[in-house]
Amino acid sequence: MESCPYNISSIISMSTLKKPPLQYRTKITNKYLSNFPSRRCCSFTCMLRPLMAENSAAAFSYKRFIHFALEETIKYTQLSTSPLQENFNCLAAMDGKAELQMLSFESPKIRLLRSLYVEGSDGMQVLDFAIFPKQEFDLPIFCANFFTTASMNIIVLDLNPLQNVISQRDYKEKYYKHLIPLGHNYSELLPWGGKITTESLKFFSPIVIWTKFSPSEHKHHALYSAFKDYLKSWLELMDKASGETDVPRIMSNLELQHRYLTWRAEKDPGHQVLRRLVGETFTKEVIRGFLFNGVDDLGSKTFTDYFPEYKCDDGTINQKRSMIGKSFESRPWDQRGEFIGNVLR
């Protein structure tokens, strides 16, 4: 584990980017960075303070998750602010009732750690938290996608594999074998949430938590516990990981991550929520420039290069969620983490 004090004395200055910051709307304030002089962050504690202050005000808030994630991560590695932070920080929704709050960091093994948090009216909250490893590592991608309203929670929590764990058994054994009991325990507390397409399943691991539930203190506690345990598991994998030196393998990691980003940037169901909040133009910028940063510069292949089955006769992308047509209403892995989707009906 890398040595990292709780107070990081300074976080790198944010580099000036060509595109103007996403601060065009009224009522946009940079809550996380407003305490910092000029464009330099004074300490990591300052960045966490707004999270801690607002956490106590609400019965349930995903800001608690972000606070934990940042505190836990700096136990393992030295985080620096990403250059993305200057352009992507806060963006007001069109109705003036919600705000997108964004944080982004990097470290020696992390290409991008980023968080998007939205708190709207009537109990609506969104958390999209992810950690992408650098290309020298074939680590899974930490993924937490949570959508909450006053009546429903829609949850995906996983260590998304770079490789297909259904067909690549060695990758599954390397990263998931010891985590199967953890995933099984939480699958009982947070049961399978219903139909999921075969195409999407390729980007999930045997320990994925895909669930829906009505808000309750018990369920929220279970979700927070799962988030902490999954994040700790990912950080431990990162801590033990050695960087690849073989160029072909590095390039393979890069292409696999680009393939993942390309799929998510095109087919992620959360896009609809963003469009309602900030409109089509800003949604595209946030998706391609922030949430799935790298989709435009980590590789040159297009969506239909990776997924030709979605290509229409006129060259456009078919907007259907599934081209295969098969979906899984129940969990397609057994208690040992073995895929049983081929026998499910």
UniProtKB/TrEMBL annotation:
Pfam families: Fe_bilin_red. It comes from the Eukaryota. The keyword tRNA processing does not apply. The keyword Oxidoreductase applies. InterPro entries: Ferredoxin-dep_bilin_Rdtase (IPR009249). GO terms for molecular function: oxidoreductase activity. This is Phytochromobilin:ferredoxin oxidoreductase, chloroplastic. It comes from Penstemon smallii.
